[in-house]
Structures are given as structure tokens and as C-alpha cells.
UniProtKB/TrEMBL annotation:
Any Pfam family matching the protein: Bestrophin-like
InterPro entries linked to this entry: DUF4239 (IPR025333)
Source organism, top-level taxon: Bacteria
Keywords: Membrane, Transmembrane, Transmembrane helix
Ranges that cross the membrane: 6-25, 45-65, 179-200, 207-227
UniProt keyword Transmembrane, yes or no: yes
Protein name (database record): DUF4239 domain-containing protein
Region (Disordered): 254-273
Length: 273
């Protein structure tokens, strides 16, 4: 943390040294009678610094938001794939595994989002449900090749869910680095003090422009605050991927129920015309 203070101070000392020494060796014709040029240079530097920091922070926040959203989509897809794979398990195992898949998805939507918002981490209760789900698939007996293949496909889907869940856990605790917040705070103060540093007189026009400057700066800082963490704040990653997975679970279950024949037709039970 000391480097964040040492380097700016060292740069300030170097700039002063170059300025004082350079003033002694430069030609007399290069000297200006007033300090307006230096004030303009400093103000332009302040505006450039603030704009660069805001742009850099916004890009980082947006990239984190997009990564977090992509991880939720990947997890929901893997949940649907696992649910489809479980259709080939024996009846008792299928009901247990698909029931746990629905329970896990419901907990993610209803409870885990609030935990990520408040604490910046995943819910231990939802993790327990997922661990139980994986243990249930692992415990499925594989007495025939079809069941073994189905079990392997379900486990492969759960591996993808686990990977996406791990990525989501990292996303929930990730935010803008502290040094960038320090740079943003420093640039904001300099920009707000720029009317004073420029020697601007207090008039109706200058008061209105200064107030407008404050509104723009405040809006930029608020936007960064809302984008800081993808699962908390004012711009939270939506749960639509999991809600769509819940819809797919219902569709798969309903299709399976309608496709099952009520009675089997034997070889000699050909209906007469």
C-alpha cells in the first residue's frame, strides 16, 4: 500500500526539481509573465486524469458483470443438461436426482441471490444441496451399460455445474481494486477543486456550471458504485437463466409424463379393424 503514496510523492518531487532547475537554465525568452498557462496545463491534466480513471474503472466493472452473467448462463445450461440426462435413470433414482436438481435451482433463485447481495459469497445451505445431489448421482447403481452411460452423462453435467458455481463464487466477491478507488477519489477531489484552482470568479454562470460539474461527477461515481459488484448494488446480474431452467424442468417433466404409454401392447394384441 505504501507504493501508492511513494510513487506520486516521488513524481511530485521530480516534477518540482525539473521545473526549478529548468527555470535556471532555459533562455529568458521562454519565460512567461503570468501563470495562466500553468493553470490551464494543470486543469487539463486533472480532467484527463479523471476521465481516464473513470473509463478504466467502468470497463473493468462491465467486464466483471459480463463474466458473471456468462457464468450463470453456463450453470443453468448444465443444470438442464443434467436434468435431461437423469431421464434415463431408474425410476426411483430419476425422481430423487431430478427432485434435488429442482430444489437446488429453487434455492439459487430464492435464497442464494440474497446471500450474494448481502455477504458477497455463496449460500452454505445451497452448497449442501448440491453436494447431496452429486452424492445421489454417484450412488446410482450401474448394473447395465445404459444406466452406466446415463450416470456418467449426469456426472459430467454436474461437473460443469460445479465449475460454473465456482466461477460464480469468485464473481460474487470480486470488485474494483482498492488502488483504483483511491485514484478515483483523488481525481474527483481535484476536479471539484478545479474552479477554485483556476481562479474562477463567483457569478451566476460560474455557479451554474460548477453545480453542473458536480452533477456529472456525482453521476459518474454513482454509476461506478452500482457496477462495482455484479451480484450486489444497483445493477445486479439477473436470475433469468435459472428461471428459464425451472421452466425447462417443467416442460421435460410434462413431456415425459405424456409420452409414457398407459398400457403395453403385446405381440398378439393387434387391434381388429
Amino acid at each position: 500500500m505504501a507504493l501508492e503514496f511513494i510513487f506520486p510523492v516521488a513524481a511530485a518531487v521530480l516534477a518540482l526539481t525539473v521545473f526549478v532547475v529548468g527555470d535556471r537554465v532555459r533562455p529568458e525568452s521562454w519565460r512567461q509573465t503570468g501563470d495562466e498557462a500553468s493553470g490551464t496545463l494543470v486543469l487539463d491534466l486533472i480532467k484527463t486524469f479523471f476521465t481516464a480513471v473513470v473509463a478504466f474503472v467502468v470497463v473493468i466493472c462491465w467486464q466483471q458483470y459480463q463474466n458473471a452473467h456468462n457464468h450463470t448462463v453456463a450453470e443453468s445450461k448444465a443444470l438442464v443438461d443434467t436434468y435431461l440426462a437423469a431421464q434415463g435413470l431408474p425410476e426411483a433414482d430419476r425422481q430423487q436426482v431430478q427432485g434435488l436438481l429442482r430444489a437446488y435451482t429453487d434455492q439459487v433463485v430464492s435464497g442464494e441471490w440474497a446471500v450474494m447481495d448481502a455477504e458477497g459469497k455463496l449460500s452454505p445451505a445451497t452448497q449442501d444441496t448440491f453436494d447431496t445431489l452429486r452424492a445421489s448421482v454417484t450412488a446410482v447403481s450401474s448394473s447395465d451399460t445404459a444406466t452406466s452411460d446415463t450416470r456418467a452423462a449426469a456426472l459430467a453435467g454436474l461437473d460443469q455445474v460445479a465449475q460454473a458455481r465456482h466461477d460464480r463464487a469468485v464473481d460474487a466477491g470480486r470488485g474494483v481494486p482498492g488502488f483504483l478507488y483511491l485514484a478515483l477519489f483523488f481525481g474527483t477531489l481535484l476536479l471539484l477543486f478545479s474552479p477554485v484552482l483556476s481562479g474562477l470568479r463567483v457569478t451566476k454562470r460560474s455557479v451554474a456550471m460548477t453545480a453542473l460539474l458536480g452533477v456529472v461527477v456525482g453521476a459518474a461515481v454513482l454509476a461506478i458504485h452500482n457496477l462495482d459488484r455484479p451480484f450486489s448494488g444497483g445493477n445486479v446480474v439477473p436470475r433469468d437463466a435459472y428461471e428459464y431452467a425451472q421452466t425447462r424442468f417443467e416442460q421435460i417433466g410434462g413431456r415425459s409424463a405424456h409420452s409414457a404409454p398407459a398400457t403395453a401392447i403385446g405381440a398378439g394384441d393387434v387391434p381388429h379393424r
